[in-house]
Specification:
With about 240 residues, the chain is an alpha+beta fold. The chain has one domain: Bira Bifunctional Protein, Domain 2 (BirA Bifunctional Protein, domain 2, 2-Layer Sandwich). The chain is built from 10 helices and 9 strands. It has helices at about 1-10, 35-40, 40-45, 80-100, 145-150, 170, 175-180, 185-205, 215-230, 235, and strands at about 15-20, 25-30, 50-55, 60-65, 65-75, 110, 115, 120-130, 135-140. It has a 6-stranded antiparallel beta sheet with strand order 1-5-9-8-7-6, sandwiched between helices. Helix 4 crosses helix 8 (about 185-205). Residues about 230-238 have low confidence and may be disordered.
């Protein structure tokens, strides 16, 4: 997916982040998700919504202009410890948001790597690993379009215990619902651009390492493979 490749191309840096608001609606599958079971493909086709796949795992999400996506690539000490790094990165996102809105200091982590307020999900995250290189993404719900989510996503085949079988409408919440002064995704993007880098450096601290030259060819080969793919969407390949 283009988000992944955009970050991977900067793998010569110890850490590189990009923050953006999707310009159009799309469904994004985790690396192991089956579109036939996770997505209402007919609804996506009727709405001309692309179905894409990212490198990292995690569940299927809907991205649209009411979301903000954080994508960070970095080199870290341990080639494993994914749960440990999820916690550090999620805490960095939370603290960056709380630097602007203190009410968001109540955000926490639940399930494997969801960012939540109480027992409601605010952001889904994913991670791709290539030895010491880590690619993290968080899709943050700023404004929640429950009708859209319910129409294009099926109930997930795997869910965290804290979801307790709830529908998308009952399981999800948004930053706008938590903090009334948040009026747009652009405000959240600005806050993250102002505060995320310092919080990533604080939380990752001594975990960051210099790029490992011997591991770069594998990342470069992945970029080349992606560029050579003729079919860029899952929906076009079905």
């Amino acid at each position: 997916m283009w988000i992944d490749d955009q970050i991977l191309r900067r793998h010569d840096k110890r850490i590189h982040s990009e923050i953006f608001i999707p310009e159009e609606t799309m469904v994004v599958l985790g690396s192991g998700n089956d579109p036939q079971t996770e997505v209402n493909l007919e609804a996506c086709s009727l709405r001309s919504i692309q179905v894409l796949r990212r490198y990292g795992g995690g569940g299927t999400v809907v991205l649209y202009p009411g979301c903000v996506v954080v994508s960070t690539g970095c080199w870290v000490k341990d080639p494993f410890k994914n749960n440990f790094y999820f916690k550090l990165l999620n805490d960095a996102v939370r603290d960056a948001l709380a630097a602007k809105w203190t009410s968001l200091s109540g955000l926490s982590q639940a399930g494997i790597s969801d960012i939540v307020m109480g027992e409601k999900k605010v952001a889904g995250t994913s991670m791709f690993r290539s030895r010491n290189y880590l690619l993290y993404q968080a899709s943050i719900l700023v404004g929640l379009d429950r009708t859209l989510v319910n129409s294009v996503l099926r109930h997930p085949t795997k869910e965290p215990d804290y979801r307790k079988g709830r529908s998308h409408a009952d399981f999800l919440t948004s930053l706008m619902e938590i903090e009334q002064t948040i009026k747009s995704a652009a405000l959240v993007k600005d806050a993250l651009e102002n505060h995320l880098e310092e919080n990533l450096l604080k939380h990752l601290a001594d975990q960051l390492i210099d790029p490992v030259t011997s591991q770069m060819p594998a990342l470069q080969a992945r970029i080349v493979r992606a560029e050579e793919e003729s079919q860029t969407t899952v929906s076009n390949s079905l």
